[in-house]
Amino acid sequence: MAPAPGNFSQPKPAIRIRKMTENDLGEADRVTRLAFGTFLKLPDPMAFMGASDYIRTRWKADPDAAFVALSGDELVGSVFVTSWGSVGFFGPLTVRPDFWDQGVARLLMEPVLECFSRWKTRHGGLFTFATSPKHLGLYQRYGFWPRFLTAILSRPVSTGDENLSYDLLSERTAGEGKKIISSCRQLTEKILEGLDLSREIKAVQVQGLGETVLIFEKNELAAFAVCHCGPGTEAGKDVCYIKFAAVAPSADAPKYFDRMIRACSSLAKRKKLGGLTAGVNFSRQEAYHQLLEMGFRIDTLGVAMQRPNEAGYNHPGVFLLDDWR
Ligand SMILES: CC(C)(COP(=O)(O)OP(=O)(O)OC[C@H]1O[C@@H](n2cnc3c(N)ncnc32)[C@H](O)[C@@H]1OP(=O)(O)O)[C@@H](O)C(=O)NCCC(=O)NCCS
C-alpha cells in the first residue's frame, strides 16, 4: 500500500562519529540546548543553560576528548569527556530530538569508553536525571551504576568576608603557579590516589574563566577551589560557580571548608556576582550539611552513576565539591 500523502519519511544516512572541530562549536551548542530544553519541556527549549557555556570551554580544555555524531554532514549529537587523573567523567551527552531512540547516544558512548581506557581511568562517572528510566538504562548498559544523589546548591553572595585571607592563583608568577598546581595535586592525592585537577585549573587560567582560590596555613595548601565566574563560562550570568573544591583531610577540614566557601563568596563579591553555586554528592555528608548550615539551598538534583560501582571519593569525611555535570 502506498503511504498517505505527506507521510513519506526519507531514510536517514548512517551515523558517523568523529572528533569535534572548532567549526562544530556553534551547532553543538545549539543541539545541546535544544536537547536538554526539549527533554525538560521548557517553553523555549533554547533558553536552557542561559548565558552558561559548556561547549566552547570544554572543547578548548581538551579538543581530543570532544566528539560529534553526524548524519550526512548534519551534526546530530555530541559528547565531552574529562580526565581528572584516576577519575574521569563525561557530559554533556546530547542528541538532537528528531534522532532520539535510534542508537545515536550508544554510538557516542564508544569514544567515551575509549578515552577512559586510553587514560587508564580507574573511577568513571557521570551526572544524570535520577528519575529517568531511559538515562539510567542507557548508562547501566556500559557498567555505570546509580549511587548517591548529587545536589547543585546556591546561596546569595553575602557581605562580611571582605577581610578574609586567601590567595588567587592568577596573582602568582608563572613559576609559583606551577608549584601551586603541583601542591593541588598533592592535596587531592591525599583524598584519592591519582586524583588530579590540573586540567581544570589550567583551563580556568588559559581561558580566563574565573579564578583558583587558595587557602594556605603556614605555607601549606589547606584547600583550593576552581571557580568559574559569569557569562561565557559554566557559571552563567551573575554567578560564581565552584566547579571543584577540596580540603586536605585533617581534623581541621571543616574549619578550612568554611574558610574556602567564604573566600569564594568574597571572590564573587569582588567580581560583582550575586550568587554562589556548588555541587556536592550526598555521600559526602559532612560537606553537604555544612553547605546547608552556611545558607545554601538545593536548586537541582541528579544522580551520580559510577563505573565500577564503587565510592571513589564519594564517601563520608571527604570535604570536596563537584558535580560531574
Ligand atoms: C539521553 C539521550 C542522550 C539519549 O540519546 P538517544 O540517542 O535517544 O539514546 P539511544 O537511542 O542511543 O539509547 C537509548 C537507550 O536507552 C535505554 N532505555 C531507553 N528507555 C529505557 C527504559 N525505559 N528503561 C531502561 N532503559 C531504557 C536503552 O538502553 C536504549 O537502548 P536500546 O533501545 O538499544 O536498548 C537523548 O535523549 C538526549 O539528548 N536527551 C536530552 C539531553 C540529556 O538528557 N542528555 C543526557 C544527560 S546525562
What structural keywords apply?
325 residues, alpha+beta, 2 domains, 14-stranded mixed beta sheet, 14 strands, 31% helix, globular
Give an account of the 3D structure.
- The chain has 325 residues and is α+β, with helices and mostly antiparallel strands.
- It folds into two domains: 15-121, Gcn5-related N-acetyltransferase (GNAT) (Aminopeptidase), CATH 3.40.630.30; 154-321, Aminopeptidase (3-Layer(aba) Sandwich), CATH 3.40.630.30.
- Helix content is 31%, strand content 29%.
- It is built from eight helices and 14 strands.
- Strands 1, 2, 3, 4, 5, 6, 7, 8, 9, 10, 11, 12, 13 and 14 form a 14-stranded mixed sheet that branches.
- Helix 2 (55-61) packs across helix 6 (198-207).
- The radius of gyration is 20 Å and the shape is globular.
- It starts with 14 loop residues before the first strand and ends with a strand.
- 43% of the residues are buried.
- It binds coenzyme A.
Short description:
The protein is α+β, with helices and mostly antiparallel strands and 325 residues long.
Topology of helices and strands:
Layout: E1 15-19, H1 25-39, H2 55-61, E2 66-71, E3 74-84, E4 87-90, E5 94-95, H3 104-119, E6 123-128, H4 133-140, E7 145-156, E8 167-168, H5 174-191, H6 198-207, E9 210-217, E10 220-229, E11 239-247, H7 253-270, E12 275-281, H8 285-293, E13 297-307, E14 320-321
Parallel strand pairs: 4-6, 11-12
Antiparallel strand pairs: 1-2, 2-3, 3-4, 3-5, 6-13, 7-12, 7-13, 8-9, 9-10, 10-11, 11-14
Bound molecules: coenzyme A.
The site of coenzyme A has 22 residues, from helix 1, strand 5, helix 3, strand 6 and helix 4.
